[in-house]
TrEMBL record:
Pfam families: MshEN (PF05157). Residues 60-144 form the Type II secretion system protein GspE N-terminal domain. This is Pilus assembly protein PilB. It comes from the Bacteria.
Length: 145
């Protein structure tokens, strides 16, 4: 996820200003922590779920946890392993006549939705989950790169 794009979400929602944003980026560079971890350290949010809920709201999607989630095999089969890994996409559900619902490692990148739609032929809709959960499920269900 592009750090600047994600930080803009928090700035635009009045949760911090640009000076805090600069401090957050500097701290991330020094500590090696993820953005959500650094935002917790700075008191902008109180949990990882807060971060992903705000991102979900930004993209008009629902936040879900993938911690204990396993979609049916027919849903997994809607994406090839190469598509899942290349697009950082994990399928959640398929609704006939509507489309494929996925979680993306980077839900703030609209190009990924367009690319996935072109690659699969499905209309693509988003749920948002923590990027580390999306990566873990892709590896679990589709194998590593």
């Amino acid at each position: 996820m592009d750090t600047d794009v994600a930080l803009d979400v928090f700035i635009n929602n009045g949760m911090m200003d640009t000076s805090v944003s600069k401090d957050v980026k500097e701290e991330m560079a020094n500590s090696g922590k993820e953005l959500w971890e650094t935002l917790i350290d700075f008191g902008v949010i109180s949990s990882p779920e807060d971060f992903w809920n705000i991102i979900a709201t930004e993209v008009g999607a629902q936040y879900i946890s993938l911690a204990d989630f396993a979609p049916p095999e027919d849903v997994i089969a809607k994406l090839t392993p190469a598509q899942a890994r290349m697009h950082g996409a994990f399928p959640i559900e398929y609704r006939s006549g509507e489309g494929l619902y996925v979680c993306l490692e980077d839900p703030l990148n609209p190009q990924t939705v367009d690319d996935l739609r072109a690659a699969t032929g499905y209309d693509i809709y988003l749920y948002v989950a923590a990027d580390y959960e999306v990566r873990a499920r892709i590896t679990e269900f589709y194998g590593g790169a």
